[in-house]
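EI: anyone free to look at a 322-residue chain?
SC: sure, send it
EI:
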Amino acid sequence: MIQGDDMFRALPLSVLTGNTHQGLAQSVCDYLGIPLGSADVFEFSNENIFVRINENVRQHDVFIMQPTSSPVNKGIMELLIMIDAAKRASAGRITAVLPYYGYSRTDKKDQPRVPITARLIADLLQTAGANRIITVDLHAGQIQGFFNIPVDELTALYMLTRHFREKRFENPVVVAADIGGAKKVRNFAERLNAPVAIIEKRRLHNNDHAEALNIIGEVEGMTAIIVDDEIDTAGTLLEAVGVLKSNGVAGVYACATHGVFSGPAIDRIARSELQELVITDTIPLPPEKRHPKITVLPISSLLGEAIHRINTAQSVGAMFEE
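SC: here you go
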């Protein structure tokens, strides 16, 4: 909790949330030492969403928290309408806090006649009235360039690597689930002083099936840590586990910032040879999706510190300088 002189703020601070992840918003407010702002956010019988902010936010520094996870489209509409409500209530500055940025996989036109939905979401957020964006570990870094307003992309890299450093594996190897994730994996491996391996794969269709081809790097007899930005259906993860086990690894762990866990993901993880999957709570994990193999690290202090620094005109980047 922030105390003392650090409590000074140029603008009064308000944190509001929609219905997607109220627990995370409350944890962030606990870190900041402020109450969670009061707002009514609900759906009428005709499926129209209604928002009413129940307190004065005139000239406040308003942070609206809403990961755009399941139900994705409803969550996006709640966020857009809350931004509009805050703007019409004369908020001084509005920051949309999306711990998980939905539609981030649709970040480029890689086939004929397809949209770039990640750019569309960026346009909607700005049109609604957002002055700034906070998010965590985007699927593709170029999404920041879709915005004409400041974007603070936070990272869970440090908390995830800290978790695995504490395990003190004798012979670890950090594994990228695909070639596209190689750069992030190199940063991860440097913090563990471990080598890197890459799983080369080819996605065959617009579905969840991916064919793993081979491993670039040495893994035999080593403890593998698979690193990805999100786990959706766990199809890619299970392909990676299978290939690593067939290449003689001593054990397989995995981590990702975002645990989407759609469809058969939990059953796949439960039946796999994966020993532990570490995620953060950017997305709420309901009781029916909790499993002993899944470890959840809290992200509230990371988000809370970023909000504090923005509100007090301090550097957000300095949070990650070591």
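EI: The helical segments are 22-32, 72-88, 117-128, 157-165, 182-192, 235-246, 265-271, 300-311.
SC: 👍
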